[in-house]
Amino acid sequence: MAEVSSKMTWLKRGGRVRPGDGKKEPSLASSMESLTQSQLNLAIMDMLNLGQNWNRCEEVCRGNPITDAGKRQQMVKMLAVVLIPVIVLTGMTANTFIVSLESYIVSSKISRILYFSIELGILLGNIQRERDMSALYVSNIELETKDLLLQRYPDTDIAIQNLSSWPTSANIVRDEFQTREKFLSYLNRHRYQLDSYNRTIKEELQFYSDSIEVFIQWLYEAIVETQSGSVWKSLVAYQEIIVASEFFGRERGLGVSFYAVGRFNTRDEYLLFVESQDIANITFQSSRLYSELAYDMYEAQLMRNANIIEPMQKMRNEIRSNRSSSSRGSVERAKWWFNNMTVYMNALRATQRQLATKIDQLLSESSNDDLRNVITICIVFGVILIICPLIVFAVYSLTSEIQTYSISIANRTKALNKEKKRTDTLLYQMLPKSVAERLKQNEVVDAEQFSESTIFFSDIVGFTQISSQSSPLQVVDMLNSLYLCFDQRIEMYDVYKVETIGDAYMVVSGVPRQNGRRHAAEIATMALDLLEHINRLEIPHLPGTKFRLRTGCHSGPVVAGVVGSKMPRYCLFGETVSIASKMESLGKANRIHISESTFELLDGLGGFVIEERKDNIKVKANDRDLLHAFKGTVRTYWLLRREGFQSEISDSSRSSTPESEGTLERNAGKTLLQRH
């Protein structure tokens, strides 16, 4: 009682147990047991399954690095993480390389076309001069005009021979343009037949103009076939200047014929002059829309010969009016027109050459940039090819080390889990699971007041005498067999085993998990079950001798809390504990002794057969604790059986109690008191 009072005083002071209170003892080193392949596999999966909130990406990335298939899958995933960016980088590098190389090739191709167009422009200029002289000769057949024409033939032939290439295409339908030799033969045949055939000025202009149109068409096709990139506007302006130069050439040729004869012989010649002049002006103006630089170059060239601008404009107006200042033709005026118009056209050709130089400069810069890009990308690509195997090897080695390390972690994790389960099992034996979980979460566990509970006490009748006649090992073996039976049976009920001290066994219901008013029925049913099984249980070292139990039960309020820090125990305190203990000590062998409070609860529930106890009134009456607990009138009862419960107390166990004067029997929810 002194011990109980001291514990009650501790609870009244607000005692509480905190995790980590007291000096920590060094933990025992747990032995690492070797794991089988299946156990190791499960350990790895448990370790990988610690977090269950996965998304689909995490599920794909996870794997078991223990099995061979799992290792291969994990290795493939790790290498894929590295190789995918490397492949993407390689693809981007290759794409940039191809684009730069194509740009370099296109720039080179445009440069070749530009050089060819310059050569073609020189050829067109010579053919235009030959056309003008031929028109002059046809309009005024004289030795002087013949000499002027013959001087133009070698220049045209040299320009044809100087072409770096002769285009060959399925689009060329005229046979005389298939090769360089065929065109020269075609041109020479026309020259030789000039004196034999009486050709008009229009026919002569048409012959040369048709040839010039073929060459211009070649230039168009060459520029269209290539991807001109950023210089396409300059190329179009360059092309327009060449076309404008051709129509200015036609204007010059028709003007030569006009001054050589003194008029246009036909209206068609006049209209052709007007058309050529208008088309030349419009075409040149369109080139300005594509390249303002070309127009500025032309103006700069023309200002160097500003003295011919006004006379040329007067002669153009004179020709356009079809009225010459002299009634007869004049070769000198025709030559003067030709020379001044040639100066005008030379300015146009100079503009053409300057624009070609500018385009070539732009293309050269672009080609150099593309070449630098190609070289840089080749270097980067080479570095990637060198580094990529090193990265793959490093990832492979690192993954292998991680897999080895994961196996080691799995072994340790498995051993740790085993030790944790052992620790939890031991902790749950010492404390209720709900209390133990709160302690594990570092929560403060305060003492709790429970208004309703039922406590069960039991001990072995004659334990002292049996122990004195038995060896210590036999005593331990005896208690072990008894408590093993107890532990197996109480698992079927809503009760909690508080503790065992020697042969004493203490069980409570309604603590720590409250169950309403069922605690009395749970303890009563459990007591009947235990008594039935113990009646059939023999003492191991005393064959034929069965255990005889003395049990007692009492219901009432209790205080429960964790006591101790090194060896914490879940203990119950209060008057209810003392009364339950007295119910056991005042009981008889193989009988269940219950208090009046327990009787009232069972009576209210119904279904239990109970008998009031009438003996030992003086003993109970002299016990002050009982008198105080029962308010002066001590009445206790014997629990006999429960209706519908298979395990019943045999009649032989009750025959040893002749003091029974009455039986309280509960049938269909009512208690029937039988007096004997």
TrEMBL record:
<dbReference type="GO" id="GO:0035556">
    <property type="term" value="P:intracellular signal transduction"/>
</dbReference>
<keyword id="KW-0675">Receptor</keyword>
<dbReference type="GO" id="GO:0004016">
    <property type="term" value="F:adenylate cyclase activity"/>
</dbReference>
<keyword id="KW-0547">Nucleotide-binding</keyword>
<keyword id="KW-0342">GTP-binding</keyword>
<dbReference type="InterPro" id="IPR013587">
    <property type="entry name" value="Nitrate/nitrite_sensing"/>
</dbReference>
<keyword id="KW-0141">cGMP biosynthesis</keyword>
<feature type="domain" description="Guanylate cyclase">
    <location>
        <begin position="454"/>
        <end position="584"/>
    </location>
</feature>
<feature type="transmembrane region" description="Helical">
    <location>
        <begin position="110"/>
        <end position="127"/>
    </location>
</feature>
<feature type="compositionally biased region" description="Low complexity">
    <location>
        <begin position="649"/>
        <end position="661"/>
    </location>
</feature>
<dbReference type="GO" id="GO:0004383">
    <property type="term" value="F:guanylate cyclase activity"/>
</dbReference>
<dbReference type="GO" id="GO:0007168">
    <property type="term" value="P:receptor guanylyl cyclase signaling pathway"/>
</dbReference>
<keyword id="KW-0812">Transmembrane</keyword>
<protein>
    <recommendedName>
        <fullName>guanylate cyclase</fullName>
        <ecNumber>4.6.1.2</ecNumber>
    </recommendedName>
</protein>
<dbReference type="GO" id="GO:0001653">
    <property type="term" value="F:peptide receptor activity"/>
</dbReference>
<keyword id="KW-0456">Lyase</keyword>
<keyword id="KW-0732">Signal</keyword>
<feature type="region of interest" description="Disordered">
    <location>
        <begin position="649"/>
        <end position="676"/>
    </location>
</feature>
<feature type="transmembrane region" description="Helical">
    <location>
        <begin position="78"/>
        <end position="98"/>
    </location>
</feature>
<feature type="transmembrane region" description="Helical">
    <location>
        <begin position="374"/>
        <end position="398"/>
    </location>
</feature>
<keyword id="KW-0325">Glycoprotein</keyword>
<dbReference type="Pfam" id="PF07701">
    <property type="entry name" value="HNOBA"/>
</dbReference>
<feature type="region of interest" description="Disordered">
    <location>
        <begin position="1"/>
        <end position="30"/>
    </location>
</feature>
<dbReference type="InterPro" id="IPR011645">
    <property type="entry name" value="HNOB_dom_associated"/>
</dbReference>
<dbReference type="GO" id="GO:0005525">
    <property type="term" value="F:GTP binding"/>
</dbReference>
<keyword id="KW-0472">Membrane</keyword>
<dbReference type="Pfam" id="PF00211">
    <property type="entry name" value="Guanylate_cyc"/>
</dbReference>
<dbReference type="Pfam" id="PF08376">
    <property type="entry name" value="NIT"/>
</dbReference>
<dbReference type="InterPro" id="IPR001054">
    <property type="entry name" value="A/G_cyclase"/>
</dbReference>
<dbReference type="InterPro" id="IPR050401">
    <property type="entry name" value="Cyclic_nucleotide_synthase"/>
</dbReference>
<dbReference type="InterPro" id="IPR029787">
    <property type="entry name" value="Nucleotide_cyclase"/>
</dbReference>
<keyword id="KW-1133">Transmembrane helix</keyword>
<dbReference type="GO" id="GO:0005886">
    <property type="term" value="C:plasma membrane"/>
</dbReference>
